[in-house]
Design a protein that fits this description.
Structural class: mainly alpha
Number of domains: 1
CATH architecture: Up-down Bundle
Shape: globular
Largest sheet: none
Length: 421
């Protein structure tokens, strides 16, 4: 049997598993990411000549594979959200991104510098890489398929889905800040450099990403639902792969204009949804993106499991493990809880939202991107990859096991309080 034959076999088993496993683990303290992460680790441990992907040697490949997975998941997240964008209606995501994200990065940078005894640049990089949340790895804590039902957008699911859609793009300025710090390590931090970073990385690129998303979504919404030519009114043809076209157009345009493509994709999806909220075509688009996203996630987590047992965990120090544990059990819960104070979120919802700060594919992408754009972190690369991979592993199993019972309990409490006596 050749390697290509084995790849075909593995791909077929993985695709079938991506369809079957979610139904097998439904309403159990298990998740699809848990199963395939464990499967990847188990296969790598077998006495077989199975190739293991090392992101330090295949950084460009890993960067673009994770990039594709993230933008597809962002399109699906935006299409699922039915709530109209507004300061009050989106208060929880705004707070989690505007307050929780910077607070998490600042505290994690300090923790990393203290525990790992690292300089400022790699400490900021690790904090920025681990800052974005990724609810795609726990389906129970994100908004489901597009629908007008209010139950699908309870505050916890909505807050976590909206936060993931926004912070997958807004973590980028801090990654760029780490790259700038590494490039100017000998010169120190200057006020002019901070101001330039803020204007370019925070203001200009964010504005471009949002503008591209609004314009692209508006134009596509017109074409999908209101085009005079039936051949252009794609909502009547119900073809799901159009979601990929919208994703790539928004992402490519924003990146060519030096804006944040992740943010553009999410805004595009939200704008398309707003163009005709009750149309069934949104469900078709969402189902297609969810299927592609599931396949990509299965593939990447299977490879991550092999990397963990071969390189990641053997190179992990107790200090690195402590950093990952501190993020998931202390820093993120506290930062999330503080950011939601006085925001209208109930106490139970506030705690659950703060605790379920899931880390996943986005963190892998940001690290691959940073290491591929700077050689200044080469000395820290093994530890950076081991810490990030371990944190994703811990998040997948911790949050994956807790998501179903916690969310079911929260749903039951909400239903009982809503039922008249």
């Amino acid at each position: 049997m050749t390697l290509s034959d084995a790849v075909y076999l593995a791909a077929g088993i993985g695709a079938l598993g991506a369809a079957v496993v979610p139904r097998l683990v439904f309403r159990r303290p298990l998740s699809l990411p848990m199963v395939f992460l464990a499967a990847g680790a188990l296969v790598a441990l077998l006495p077989l000549s199975v190739p293991v992907v090392d992101p330090r040697e295949h950084g460009i490949w890993v960067e673009h594979a994770t990039e594709l997975c993230v933008i597809v998941s962002l399109m699906g997240a935006g299409l699922a959200l039915n709530r109209r964008v507004g300061l009050r209606s989106w208060a929880a995501p705004w707070r989690l991104v505007g307050l929780g994200l910077p607070l998490t990065i600042v505290v994690m940078a300090a923790v990393t510098a203290l525990v790992m005894d690292w300089p400022l640049a790699p400490a900021v990089l690790l904090a920025a890489v681990l800052s974005p949340t990724d609810p795609v790895l726990a389906a129970e804590v994100r908004v489901g398929e597009p629908t007008d039902a209010q139950d699908d957008e309870d505050e916890v699911r909505f807050a976590l889905t909206g936060e993931a859609g926004l912070n997958d793009g807004l973590a980028f300025p801090f990654v760029l800040a780490a790259l700038a710090l590494a490039a100017t390590a000998d010169q120190g931090v200057e006020a002019g450099g901070v101001g330039l970073w803020f204007l370019d990385a925070v203001v200009a690129r964010t504005a471009i990403g949002i503008a591209v998303g609004i314009v692209t979504g508006w134009l596509l919404g017109l074409m999908f639902f209101r085009a005079r030519q039936p051949s252009l009114r794609l909502s009547e043809h119900m073809e799901g792969f159009v979601a990929l076209g919208a994703t790539f157009v928004a992402y490519g345009t924003a990146e060519l204009l030096h804006g944040y493509g992740f943010l553009a994709v999410f805004v595009t999806a939200c704008t398309i949804r707003a163009a005709e909220r009750s149309h069934g075509y949104h469900k078709v688009l969402h189902e297609f993106t969810e299927q592609i996203e599931r396949l990509l996630t299965v593939f990447l987590l299977f490879l991550l499991g092999g990397f963990l047992v071969t390189y990641g965990l053997p190179e992990l120090t107790w200090r690195g493990a402590l950093v990952g544990v501190a993020l998931l059990l202390v820093v993120r819960p506290v930062a999330g809880w503080v950011s939601l104070l006085r925001g209208g979120t109930g106490p139970r919802e506030r705690v659950v939202t703060a605790v379920f700060g899931i880390r996943g594919v986005g963190s892998l992408y940001y690290l691959a991107y940073a290491l591929g754009h700077s050689e200044q972190f080469d000395g820290h690369a093994p530890q950076l990859w081991s810490i990030v991979a371990f944190t994703v592993l811990l998040s997948v199993f911790l949050h994956g096991a807790a998501a179903t019972p916690v969310i079911r309990r929260l749903d039951a409490l909400r239903d009982s309080s809503a039922t008249p006596p």
